[in-house]
Amino acid sequence: xxxxxxxxxxxxxxxxxxxxxxxxxxxxxxxxxxxxxxxxxxxxxxxxxxxxxxxxxxxxxxxxxxxxxxxxxxxxxxxxxxxxxxxxxxxxxxxxxxxxxxxxxxxxxxxxxxxxxxxxxxxxxxxxxxxxx
Length: 133
Description:
Blueprint lengths: L3 H8 L2 E5 L3 H13 L3 E5 L2 H10 L3 E7 L8 H11 L4 E6 L14 E4 L4 H12 L6
Parallel strand pairs: 1-2, 1-3, 3-4, 4-5
């Protein structure tokens, strides 16, 4: 018999946080978990891609623009949008502010420093269209 807790857990969206700064990543993870999201963490775009390719339950990606490795957060966002168009994408940075046309269609940007509640609200708003009725 399936319990109500099991049904609820199945419907909780999963968020992938891609941030190379461990403290910032941990703070974002705590905020999303406090808002009842399941959280996965990656320190760069390559790690994020491995998680995305291995899982089918990621509903959103929250990524910093500047990260080590071959892909920036903007590159990652464009790849996510191309391969997994149903995944919501929220991009952040404290130093790089994307200009007109730099964000993939449907993605949003929030500048650092941001309020944790605003980060969660903005990502939730991006996920609304993909939520079942």
